[in-house]
Input
Amino acid sequence: MALPQAGALQPPEPSQLTRQRMQESTPEGTAELRLTPAPVAGRQLRVLLTPLPQERLLALEGWAPGGKKLRPREPGPADVWDADSDGSEAEDAGAGGCSQLSVYEKKRLKNIIDNAKFFAALKLYESAARLQQIATRRQSLVTKRAKPKKAEDETVRRRSMRLQRVEPSGVSGLEAPAQPAAAGNVRQPQVPAGPLPMVPEDQKGNSKLTEDLLTTWMRISEVKANGTEKCLCDMKRYQDMLSSMVLSKENIRKVVKYRVCSMAIHPSESILFVAAGDKSGQIGLWNVDCKSEEGAHVFVPHNDLVSCMHFSPFNPAHLLSLSNDSLRCGDVTQAVFDDIYRSGEKLSSFDFLEDNASTAIVTHWGGNITIVDRRTPGTSSGLSADIGFKRMRTVHVHPVNKQYFMTAGSQDVCIYDIRYLKFHRNTPVSSLKGHTKSVASAFFSPVTGNRVVTVCADDKLRVYDTSSLSATVEVLSTIRHNNNTGRWLSRFQAVWDPKQEDCFVVGSMARPRQIEVFQDTGKLLHSFSNLNCLSSVCSINVVHPTKNVLVGGNSSGRLHVFKD
DNA sequence: ACGTGATGACTCC
DNA sequence: TGGAGTCCCTCACG
Output
């Protein structure tokens, strides 16, 4: 409901009005007045409306209370001025300026006055009071209008102080009025759109402490990692290498506050540098080689779950991160998290389309994809297409044939050719059939793209042979695997070891807690575990592209680095 | 019927 | 004693 403006309810003083009309009246006798009377309190308002002489005077001049021009029309029982309408009616009132009253007009005026009195007595006072409330605090209205469901949620589902992010002092309770847990948002202050300074959360205004971390990131990004030699060593050697990778206490660190939802590892070979995104929109950067407190810092470039992150393969000084509403690029050389793309639709995943990382394919949760070109900032440029998925979780571009990309979601896993995308009704090049429940992830093998591994809620890992893309793709192996991560853990994603074409890493519910490495044949090659250090489930894992390093993130924001 | 997302008790240090 | 960390196999809703 469009509530009337506070000012519009005050009728102008007749004398003043008349003066204005004399000045502004047109030869036809119509006046186009723009009156902006000062706001008036509700109580005063009633007093102003009730005295009849004033009403009559106003009415005689063709004005209704509220500064609105009366439209001449047939009188009727509902012939009252409409406090809800906007000011447009005043403009098209036409030649209604009345100086001499006909019988009809007198009757009409009587109606108007009676009705005005009636409304002033009943509704206007109420409205004015509500207006006042709006002017001071919107909250009373919000609670009135709030859906009962939300109110219920608040009462039925009681949340602990810690979960409400309420400081023990209770200070933040004042700052968190109307948006308690709206959309699961964990954080109170909303991150604005547009570029954000790369300043850690705990040190707003004092970036001195992060200087080391960011300088390190910048420095290691200048050195081109030479190791694209993705060796395909024999399985025995590979297993030995895996066995040599161990976890020690100093290589465990909590880098974000809440559950890890995505991770990225910097390609540098000199320094181990990891980024983790959590459920609340935080991104933690950790220089694993720096053992001091300054080795890790938290930034907050998003409002919501950071679902996908990649260092740019072209320029690892850029860290791209995706949240529900935006794709950002953290550029350490500029010390900003820049906006690349924003959408009203919920975003789920992205991948780079070319090696130069200038274009990215972004999937929307609801089944659309968008091609985002970073060279045209601030626009959702390029192609948008509906590929008919109900829910899309991950997207991955074929490592060799970049025209192919694969999406995985609740419906299925499909491979599309980007050259033949249409706005609607896209048919996939290949469908990877067999999933009976929703699919959490699907990724091409890193070197050739000849394999795809999927994680499905039907408690199976599947490996497909995608060496030739036909309408149906053969399942190579199926692995029984408990993927029921449930309520508190991020869903498992199976990721290939970039160094080993045919092996992938996946978290596990098995006890003792472990991270598993499988061969594409379905053979379990290794389980990373440590009875002393690893006591939780690592849902999200990344493997370094050249070094023997594996990082696992758990649902408490803690990262575990296995290295040799 | 199925997919999705929400959250609090308990243990350990 | 209290805060940090772990993790479930539920339940409402669309």
Summary: Chain A has two domains: 11-69+97-127, 196-224+231-563. Residues 1-99, 118-187 of chain A have pLDDT under 50 and may be disordered. Residues 11-69+97-127 of chain A form one domain.
